[in-house]
Design goal:
Number of helices: 19
Structural class: mainly alpha
Helix content: over 70%
Shape: globular
């Protein structure tokens, strides 16, 4: 009987591990079928050349992204090692314990990984991507040390990654900057819709994982956390609405970067107080950063090439036109359809979605309905498949279990919220 159960569990695990495999293969096969139709019925003799060029370019981009991460990872994992030896990470772990022990019940109390998770989420909230990613990769390495099945994502890993994929950001500095570059009359007018949309996607991600892992969401600490976060967002909205648009960008950037450098100095001081060799601690952590950057290269190349050929084949355009026909046949407003390229690209490629957002603002105007919609969409979630490939690739996780499904559910919630909120605020 036990042997039969083991075989069934093994088969179930294998089915779960095939999700990314199915998605990746589907990119290529769908791209091939669409390209073949364009060649035969449309006479597009350049389509396969475009696909091959896109595959080479995407492979190059994957390597360059990994290469670009090397310096940032080396810096921040070195700083994190100083904080770990100086006791700061443990302090952050104690601060986050009341909430994280409920969301991550499988992590031992006051374990240093809680501090790394706390810092990663805090950096994401402030829109500090360059700091958030190394902190997140450090957290994944520590979660992997606790993981009993080294090729299978653990429950805490799934919760952590789904929160990251939902992209909760309180201050969308980059998006406001792009809107200013595109001559928007008020670049920060999308601030409130973005905040509400990303809060929605993150809430859906957390609730979905809690339901799947049977975590009681009505625990006092969790209710206080979500209630406090809602009040904090409300206060931030009131504060930013009382400021001029130039002040919003200035103060948010100043606050975020001042806090970030203060954290670095705080880590250094903690190391000095503990009488450790700060320089040696930094070098030790920096070596881990370099190794991590090398590890993620094949994972990023694989996912970016798949996305690249899917996009170059024109499959994305076919999907969008199908949705347009369906919506118009129902007599519904079709303005949001012009924002679908950004919506569909967002879970696949951050740079691709960013390019489509800028293109939409240039085509329709930064202050048009579509221009505002793509801005809200860009800030509502993170790039799910990139995040999965990056974070799980850093610790060689092959079985993602239900991570992708729940992350895409959060993406869908964020996209629906973005569309609805754009109609409410700018419709």
């Amino acid at each position: 009987m036990r042997g039969s159960l083991s075989i069934l569990n093994g088969q179930s695990s294998m089915r779960r591990s095939m999700v990314l495999n199915y998605i990746w293969v589907a990119f290529f096969l769908i791209a091939f079928l669409v390209a073949l139709c364009k060649l035969i019925f449309g006479g597009d003799t350049a389509v396969f050349t475009d696909i091959i060029n896109a595959s080479f370019l995407s492979a190059k981009d994957g390597f360059e992204i990994s290469l670009g991460l090397t310096g940032v990872l080396t810096l921040w994992l070195g700083i994190m090692k100083i904080g770990e030896k100086g006791g700061v990470i443990q302090t952050f772990a104690r601060l986050g314990a009341p909430v994280f022990t409920k969301l991550f019940p499988d992590i031992p109390k006051d374990h240093p990984v809680t501090g790394s998770i706390f810092m990663n989420i805090s950096a994401n909230l402030l829109g500090l991507d360059n700091a958030a990613t190394p902190m997140g990769l450090k957290a994944m390495q520590e979660l992997q040390a606790l993981n009993k099945e080294k090729e299978t994502a653990s429950n805490p890993m799934i919760m952590f990654l789904c929160i990251n994929a939902s992209g909760l950001t309180l201050i969308p500095i980059t998006i406001m900057m792009y809107r200013a570059q595109q001559q928007a009359a008020n670049p920060s007018d999308i601030f409130l819709p973005i905040m509400l949309a990303t809060f929605t996607s993150t809430l859906v991600a957390i609730l979905a994982v809690c339901l799947k892992q049977r975590i009681n969401v009505f625990q006092k600490n969790l209710l206080f956390f979500f209630g406090g976060l809602a009040l904090f967002i409300g206060g931030l909205v009131w504060l930013f609405n009382s400021l001029e648009q130039e002040q919003v960008a200035l103060y948010s950037t100043l606050f975020a970067n001042t806090l970030l450098f203060s954290i670095i100095c705080g880590f250094l001081i903690s190391g000095i107080r503990k009488k450790i060799n700060v320089y040696d601690a930094f070098i030790e952590g920096a070596k881990e950063g370099f190794q991590t950057a090398i590890t993620i290269v094949p994972y990023l190349v694989a996912i970016l090439v798949g996305i690249g050929v899917f996009r170059a084949s024109g499959a994305m355009d076919f999907i969008i036109e199908g949705v347009r026909l369906g919506v118009s046949s129902l007599g519904m407003d079709t303005r949001f359809v012009e924002g679908l390229p950004t919506i569909l690209m967002k879970p696949l490629s951050g740079s691709g979605a960013r390019g489509l957002m800028i293109d939409a603002m240039q085509t329709y105007g930064a202050d048009s309905f579509v221009g505002r919609l793509v801005s809200v969409v860009q800030g509502s979630t993170d790039t799910t498949l990139y995040v999965v490939a990056l974070y799980y690739g850093s610790v060689a996780i092959r079985n993602a279990r239900y991570t992708v499904q729940l992350s895409l559910l959060a993406d869908l919630a964020g996209a629906i919220a973005a569309i609805a909120l754009t109609y409410v605020f700018f419709g």
